[in-house]
Design goal:
The chain is an alpha/beta fold. Helix content is 74%, strand content 6%. Strands 1-2-3-4 form a four-stranded mixed β-sheet, with helices on both faces. One of its GO terms (cellular component) is ATP-binding cassette (ABC) transporter complex.
Length: 382
Protein backbone atom coordinates (compact mmCIF):
# COMPACT_ATOMS: atom_id res chain seq x y z
CA UNK A 1 0.00 0.00 0.00
CA UNK A 2 1.43 3.47 -0.86
CA UNK A 3 2.20 5.94 1.96
CA UNK A 4 -0.86 8.05 1.13
CA UNK A 5 -3.09 5.03 1.55
CA UNK A 6 -1.40 4.13 4.86
CA UNK A 7 -2.02 7.67 6.23
CA UNK A 8 -5.67 7.54 5.14
CA UNK A 9 -6.07 4.14 6.77
CA UNK A 10 -4.41 5.39 10.00
CA UNK A 11 -6.74 8.39 10.16
CA UNK A 12 -9.76 6.19 9.59
CA UNK A 13 -8.66 3.82 12.34
CA UNK A 14 -8.09 6.77 14.68
CA UNK A 15 -11.64 7.97 14.09
CA UNK A 16 -13.05 4.50 14.68
CA UNK A 17 -11.19 3.66 17.94
CA UNK A 18 -11.11 7.26 19.24
CA UNK A 19 -7.33 7.47 19.57
CA UNK A 20 -5.72 10.82 18.83
CA UNK A 21 -3.67 11.01 15.64
CA UNK A 22 -1.58 13.57 13.75
CA UNK A 23 -0.50 13.90 10.13
CA UNK A 24 1.69 16.53 8.44
CA UNK A 25 0.60 17.08 4.86
CA UNK A 26 2.73 18.07 1.89
CA UNK A 27 1.77 21.75 2.21
CA UNK A 28 2.81 21.78 5.91
CA UNK A 29 -0.72 21.59 7.31
CA UNK A 30 -1.11 19.55 10.48
CA UNK A 31 -4.19 17.35 10.46
CA UNK A 32 -5.35 16.16 13.90
CA UNK A 33 -7.87 13.36 14.38
CA UNK A 34 -9.54 11.32 17.10
CA UNK A 35 -10.35 12.38 20.67
CA UNK A 36 -8.31 15.36 21.85
CA UNK A 37 -9.19 15.04 25.52
CA UNK A 38 -6.75 14.80 28.44
CA UNK A 39 -5.72 11.22 27.63
CA UNK A 40 -5.48 11.83 23.91
CA UNK A 41 -3.49 15.05 24.31
CA UNK A 42 -1.11 13.35 26.77
CA UNK A 43 -0.53 10.44 24.38
CA UNK A 44 -0.04 12.76 21.39
CA UNK A 45 2.10 15.42 23.09
CA UNK A 46 5.54 13.67 22.80
CA UNK A 47 4.95 12.98 19.11
CA UNK A 48 3.86 16.56 18.53
CA UNK A 49 6.93 17.91 20.29
CA UNK A 50 9.21 15.69 18.21
CA UNK A 51 7.49 16.92 15.07
CA UNK A 52 7.89 20.53 16.15
CA UNK A 53 11.59 20.02 16.89
CA UNK A 54 12.11 18.30 13.54
CA UNK A 55 10.38 21.12 11.67
CA UNK A 56 11.63 24.01 13.80
CA UNK A 57 13.41 25.56 10.88
CA UNK A 58 10.08 25.77 8.99
CA UNK A 59 8.38 27.66 11.83
CA UNK A 60 4.76 27.16 12.88
CA UNK A 61 2.49 25.22 10.47
CA UNK A 62 0.48 27.39 8.06
CA UNK A 63 -2.75 25.66 9.10
CA UNK A 64 -4.12 23.11 11.56
CA UNK A 65 -6.97 20.93 10.31
CA UNK A 66 -9.40 19.82 13.02
CA UNK A 67 -11.95 18.22 10.71
CA UNK A 68 -10.97 14.73 11.85
CA UNK A 69 -11.33 15.21 15.59
CA UNK A 70 -14.29 13.66 17.38
CA UNK A 71 -13.92 15.40 20.75
CA UNK A 72 -12.04 18.47 22.06
CA UNK A 73 -11.60 19.64 25.65
CA UNK A 74 -9.33 22.21 27.28
CA UNK A 75 -6.31 19.84 27.36
CA UNK A 76 -6.60 19.29 23.61
CA UNK A 77 -7.21 23.00 23.07
CA UNK A 78 -3.96 23.81 24.90
CA UNK A 79 -2.16 21.38 22.59
CA UNK A 80 -3.66 23.00 19.49
CA UNK A 81 -2.90 26.53 20.65
CA UNK A 82 0.63 25.53 21.58
CA UNK A 83 1.18 24.27 18.05
CA UNK A 84 -0.39 27.29 16.38
CA UNK A 85 1.61 30.39 15.61
CA UNK A 86 0.35 33.96 15.20
CA UNK A 87 -0.33 33.37 11.46
CA UNK A 88 -1.57 29.78 11.69
CA UNK A 89 -5.09 29.13 10.45
CA UNK A 90 -7.32 26.70 12.32
CA UNK A 91 -9.56 24.92 9.83
CA UNK A 92 -12.29 22.32 10.01
CA UNK A 93 -13.36 23.13 13.59
CA UNK A 94 -17.02 23.11 14.42
CA UNK A 95 -18.84 25.68 16.48
CA UNK A 96 -18.36 23.77 19.74
CA UNK A 97 -14.63 23.27 19.08
CA UNK A 98 -14.14 26.96 18.29
CA UNK A 99 -15.89 27.92 21.52
CA UNK A 100 -13.51 25.68 23.50
CA UNK A 101 -10.53 27.17 21.67
CA UNK A 102 -11.70 30.73 22.37
CA UNK A 103 -12.25 30.07 26.08
CA UNK A 104 -8.89 28.38 26.42
CA UNK A 105 -7.12 31.18 24.54
CA UNK A 106 -8.69 33.79 26.81
CA UNK A 107 -7.79 31.83 29.96
CA UNK A 108 -4.17 31.46 28.85
CA UNK A 109 -3.96 35.17 28.08
CA UNK A 110 -5.35 36.13 31.50
CA UNK A 111 -3.11 33.78 33.50
CA UNK A 112 0.27 33.44 31.80
CA UNK A 113 2.71 30.99 33.37
CA UNK A 114 4.95 32.56 36.02
CA UNK A 115 8.35 33.63 34.84
CA UNK A 116 11.06 31.86 36.84
CA UNK A 117 13.17 34.33 38.80
CA UNK A 118 16.62 35.00 37.49
CA UNK A 119 19.43 33.81 39.76
CA UNK A 120 20.97 36.67 41.67
CA UNK A 121 24.68 37.36 41.31
CA UNK A 122 26.76 36.48 44.33
CA UNK A 123 27.14 40.10 45.40
CA UNK A 124 23.37 40.67 45.35
CA UNK A 125 22.82 37.40 47.20
CA UNK A 126 25.34 38.45 49.87
CA UNK A 127 23.65 41.85 50.19
CA UNK A 128 20.24 40.21 50.55
CA UNK A 129 21.55 37.93 53.30
CA UNK A 130 23.12 40.84 55.18
CA UNK A 131 19.92 42.88 54.81
CA UNK A 132 17.80 39.99 56.11
CA UNK A 133 20.15 39.47 59.06
CA UNK A 134 20.05 43.18 59.89
CA UNK A 135 16.26 43.23 59.72
CA UNK A 136 16.07 40.19 62.00
CA UNK A 137 18.40 41.85 64.53
CA UNK A 138 16.34 45.05 64.37
CA UNK A 139 13.07 43.18 64.94
CA UNK A 140 14.58 41.16 67.78
CA UNK A 141 15.89 44.30 69.47
CA UNK A 142 12.49 45.94 69.13
CA UNK A 143 10.83 42.88 70.67
CA UNK A 144 13.23 42.94 73.63
CA UNK A 145 12.52 46.65 74.10
CA UNK A 146 8.77 46.04 74.08
CA UNK A 147 9.16 43.30 76.69
CA UNK A 148 11.24 45.56 78.93
CA UNK A 149 8.80 48.46 78.64
CA UNK A 150 5.85 46.18 79.38
CA UNK A 151 7.64 44.61 82.36
CA UNK A 152 8.44 48.04 83.80
CA UNK A 153 4.81 49.05 83.27
CA UNK A 154 3.74 46.15 85.48
CA UNK A 155 5.44 47.87 88.43
CA UNK A 156 2.82 50.60 88.21
CA UNK A 157 -0.10 48.39 87.17
CA UNK A 158 0.53 44.86 88.44
CA UNK A 159 -3.09 43.93 87.76
CA UNK A 160 -2.24 43.79 84.04
CA UNK A 161 -0.49 40.49 84.74
CA UNK A 162 -3.24 37.94 85.28
CA UNK A 163 -2.40 35.34 87.92
CA UNK A 164 -4.50 32.66 86.21
CA UNK A 165 -2.45 32.91 83.01
CA UNK A 166 0.81 32.81 84.95
CA UNK A 167 -0.23 29.71 86.90
CA UNK A 168 -1.38 27.98 83.72
CA UNK A 169 1.96 28.65 82.05
CA UNK A 170 3.84 27.45 85.15
CA UNK A 171 1.90 24.21 84.93
CA UNK A 172 2.66 23.84 81.23
CA UNK A 173 6.35 24.71 81.46
CA UNK A 174 7.20 23.17 84.82
CA UNK A 175 4.93 20.48 86.26
CA UNK A 176 4.14 18.71 83.00
CA UNK A 177 7.85 18.55 82.11
CA UNK A 178 8.86 16.85 85.38
CA UNK A 179 8.52 13.21 84.18
CA UNK A 180 10.56 13.78 81.02
CA UNK A 181 13.15 15.79 82.95
CA UNK A 182 13.60 13.08 85.58
CA UNK A 183 13.86 10.35 82.93
CA UNK A 184 16.49 12.19 80.88
CA UNK A 185 18.42 13.16 84.02
CA UNK A 186 18.69 9.57 85.20
CA UNK A 187 19.75 8.38 81.74
CA UNK A 188 22.36 11.12 81.42
CA UNK A 189 23.78 10.23 84.85
CA UNK A 190 23.94 6.53 83.96
CA UNK A 191 25.63 7.22 80.61
CA UNK A 192 28.16 9.65 82.09
CA UNK A 193 29.05 7.24 84.88
CA UNK A 194 29.56 4.31 82.53
CA UNK A 195 31.53 6.29 79.96
CA UNK A 196 33.72 7.92 82.61
CA UNK A 197 34.43 4.70 84.49
CA UNK A 198 35.69 2.85 81.40
CA UNK A 199 38.80 5.00 80.72
CA UNK A 200 39.44 5.83 84.40
CA UNK A 201 39.47 2.14 85.32
CA UNK A 202 42.71 1.70 83.36
CA UNK A 203 44.49 4.06 85.74
CA UNK A 204 42.65 3.06 88.91
CA UNK A 205 40.76 6.34 88.99
CA UNK A 206 37.20 5.09 89.30
CA UNK A 207 36.92 6.91 92.62
CA UNK A 208 36.92 10.22 90.70
CA UNK A 209 33.76 9.37 88.70
CA UNK A 210 31.31 10.92 91.24
CA UNK A 211 33.07 14.27 91.35
CA UNK A 212 33.50 14.30 87.55
CA UNK A 213 29.84 13.57 86.88
CA UNK A 214 28.70 15.96 89.63
CA UNK A 215 30.70 18.93 88.36
CA UNK A 216 29.69 18.32 84.72
CA UNK A 217 26.03 18.05 85.66
CA UNK A 218 25.86 21.08 87.91
CA UNK A 219 27.90 23.43 85.75
CA UNK A 220 27.05 22.40 82.18
CA UNK A 221 24.83 19.45 81.36
CA UNK A 222 22.04 20.15 83.84
CA UNK A 223 21.18 23.60 82.41
CA UNK A 224 21.77 22.40 78.83
CA UNK A 225 19.51 19.35 79.10
CA UNK A 226 16.79 21.42 80.75
CA UNK A 227 17.13 24.04 78.01
CA UNK A 228 16.81 21.43 75.26
CA UNK A 229 13.69 20.01 76.94
CA UNK A 230 12.12 23.46 77.24
CA UNK A 231 13.06 24.41 73.67
CA UNK A 232 11.49 21.23 72.28
CA UNK A 233 8.39 21.23 74.47
CA UNK A 234 7.68 24.79 75.49
CA UNK A 235 9.33 26.97 72.86
CA UNK A 236 7.53 25.18 70.04
CA UNK A 237 4.26 25.24 72.01
CA UNK A 238 4.55 29.01 72.55
CA UNK A 239 5.25 29.58 68.86
CA UNK A 240 2.41 27.31 67.73
CA UNK A 241 -0.15 28.82 70.11
CA UNK A 242 0.72 32.44 69.40
CA UNK A 243 1.18 31.68 65.71
CA UNK A 244 -2.33 30.25 65.52
CA UNK A 245 -3.69 33.34 67.25
CA UNK A 246 -1.78 35.54 64.79
CA UNK A 247 -3.07 33.62 61.77
CA UNK A 248 -6.65 33.82 63.11
CA UNK A 249 -6.13 37.58 63.70
CA UNK A 250 -6.86 37.21 67.42
CA UNK A 251 -3.77 39.23 68.32
CA UNK A 252 -4.97 42.06 66.06
CA UNK A 253 -8.37 41.89 67.73
CA UNK A 254 -6.76 42.31 71.17
CA UNK A 255 -4.92 45.41 69.96
CA UNK A 256 -8.09 46.86 68.47
CA UNK A 257 -9.85 46.37 71.82
CA UNK A 258 -7.03 48.26 73.57
CA UNK A 259 -5.59 45.21 75.36
CA UNK A 260 -1.82 45.04 75.64
CA UNK A 261 -0.96 41.79 73.90
CA UNK A 262 2.56 41.79 75.36
CA UNK A 263 1.27 41.90 78.93
CA UNK A 264 -1.44 39.34 78.26
CA UNK A 265 0.36 36.85 76.01
CA UNK A 266 4.12 37.26 76.32
CA UNK A 267 4.99 38.26 79.89
CA UNK A 268 3.23 35.31 81.61
CA UNK A 269 5.18 32.93 79.40
CA UNK A 270 8.48 34.72 80.02
CA UNK A 271 8.01 34.81 83.80
CA UNK A 272 6.83 31.19 83.95
CA UNK A 273 9.83 29.96 81.98
CA UNK A 274 12.21 32.12 84.01
CA UNK A 275 10.88 30.55 87.22
CA UNK A 276 10.58 26.97 85.98
CA UNK A 277 13.94 26.59 84.24
CA UNK A 278 16.13 26.58 87.39
CA UNK A 279 13.77 24.03 88.93
CA UNK A 280 14.03 21.79 85.86
CA UNK A 281 17.82 22.14 85.86
CA UNK A 282 17.90 21.19 89.54
CA UNK A 283 15.79 18.11 88.79
CA UNK A 284 18.20 17.11 86.01
CA UNK A 285 21.11 17.50 88.45
CA UNK A 286 19.48 15.44 91.20
CA UNK A 287 18.21 12.68 88.91
CA UNK A 288 21.56 12.55 87.13
CA UNK A 289 23.37 12.11 90.44
CA UNK A 290 20.92 9.34 91.34
CA UNK A 291 21.65 7.58 88.05
CA UNK A 292 25.39 7.92 88.65
CA UNK A 293 25.01 6.55 92.19
CA UNK A 294 23.12 3.51 90.88
CA UNK A 295 25.94 2.72 88.46
CA UNK A 296 28.68 3.23 91.06
CA UNK A 297 26.93 1.12 93.71
CA UNK A 298 26.57 -1.59 91.08
CA UNK A 299 30.38 -1.51 90.80
CA UNK A 300 30.79 -2.09 94.55
CA UNK A 301 31.33 1.53 95.57
CA UNK A 302 29.63 2.29 98.93
CA UNK A 303 26.95 4.94 98.86
CA UNK A 304 28.46 6.81 101.78
CA UNK A 305 31.74 7.16 99.84
CA UNK A 306 29.89 8.59 96.83
CA UNK A 307 28.03 11.04 99.07
CA UNK A 308 31.18 12.20 100.84
CA UNK A 309 32.98 12.73 97.53
CA UNK A 310 30.14 14.85 96.19
CA UNK A 311 29.98 16.93 99.38
CA UNK A 312 33.73 17.45 99.28
CA UNK A 313 34.06 18.53 95.65
CA UNK A 314 30.76 20.20 94.79
CA UNK A 315 30.26 23.75 96.02
CA UNK A 316 27.29 26.05 96.24
CA UNK A 317 28.93 28.26 93.62
CA UNK A 318 28.76 25.43 91.07
CA UNK A 319 25.06 24.92 91.76
CA UNK A 320 24.13 28.61 91.71
CA UNK A 321 26.13 29.23 88.52
CA UNK A 322 24.29 26.44 86.73
CA UNK A 323 20.89 27.61 87.97
CA UNK A 324 21.65 31.17 86.87
CA UNK A 325 22.57 29.93 83.39
CA UNK A 326 19.37 27.89 83.29
CA UNK A 327 17.27 30.96 84.09
CA UNK A 328 18.94 32.96 81.30
CA UNK A 329 18.51 30.04 78.88
CA UNK A 330 14.81 29.83 79.72
CA UNK A 331 14.30 33.56 79.22
CA UNK A 332 15.96 33.40 75.80
CA UNK A 333 13.99 30.31 74.71
CA UNK A 334 10.66 31.78 75.80
CA UNK A 335 11.39 35.10 74.12
CA UNK A 336 12.38 33.44 70.84
CA UNK A 337 9.29 31.22 70.90
CA UNK A 338 6.91 34.14 71.59
CA UNK A 339 8.52 36.32 68.92
CA UNK A 340 8.34 33.50 66.35
CA UNK A 341 4.63 33.06 67.07
CA UNK A 342 3.76 36.76 66.97
CA UNK A 343 5.68 37.27 63.71
CA UNK A 344 4.09 34.28 61.94
CA UNK A 345 2.76 34.83 58.44
CA UNK A 346 -0.70 34.21 57.12
CA UNK A 347 -0.21 31.12 54.96
CA UNK A 348 -1.07 27.48 55.74
CA UNK A 349 2.54 26.74 56.72
CA UNK A 350 2.91 29.74 59.00
CA UNK A 351 2.35 27.90 62.29
CA UNK A 352 4.70 25.05 61.39
CA UNK A 353 7.41 27.45 60.27
CA UNK A 354 7.03 29.44 63.49
CA UNK A 355 7.37 26.31 65.65
CA UNK A 356 10.44 25.19 63.70
CA UNK A 357 12.03 28.63 64.01
CA UNK A 358 11.36 28.63 67.76
CA UNK A 359 13.03 25.25 68.37
CA UNK A 360 16.04 25.94 66.15
CA UNK A 361 16.48 29.48 67.45
CA UNK A 362 16.13 28.38 71.07
CA UNK A 363 18.78 25.66 70.77
CA UNK A 364 21.20 27.94 68.90
CA UNK A 365 20.70 30.72 71.46
CA UNK A 366 21.32 28.24 74.28
CA UNK A 367 24.61 27.05 72.80
CA UNK A 368 25.79 30.60 72.08
CA UNK A 369 24.90 31.79 75.58
CA UNK A 370 26.59 28.77 77.13
CA UNK A 371 29.80 29.61 75.26
CA UNK A 372 29.61 33.21 76.44
CA UNK A 373 29.06 32.07 80.03
CA UNK A 374 32.03 29.70 79.77
CA UNK A 375 34.31 32.57 78.76
CA UNK A 376 32.81 34.92 81.36
CA UNK A 377 33.05 32.42 84.23
CA UNK A 378 36.62 31.62 83.23
CA UNK A 379 37.60 35.28 83.28
CA UNK A 380 35.87 35.84 86.62
CA UNK A 381 37.37 32.69 88.11
CA UNK A 382 33.97 31.19 88.91
Amino acid sequence: MPPEGQDIAARAAAREDGNAGMERRADGTLALSGRLDADGAAALWPRVMRGVEAGAQDGAPPAIDLAGITMLDTAGAVLVLDLAGPETRIEGAGEAERAVLDRTRDALAEAPPPVPPKPMPWLAWLGAMVFAAGRSIRDGTAFIGQCLVTALGLLRRPRNLRAADLLRQLDEVGLRAFPLTLLLGVLIGVILAFQSAIPLRRYGGEMFVPQLVGIVLLRELGPLIAAIIVAGRTGSAFAAELGTMTVNEEVDALRIMGIDSMAMLVLPRLIATLVAMPILALLVNLSGLVGMAVVMTGQNFPLISITNTLMQWLTLRDLLGGLFKAAVFGLAIAGIGCRAGLSAGRGPRAVGDAATAAVVGGIIATVVLDGLFAVLFSRLGI
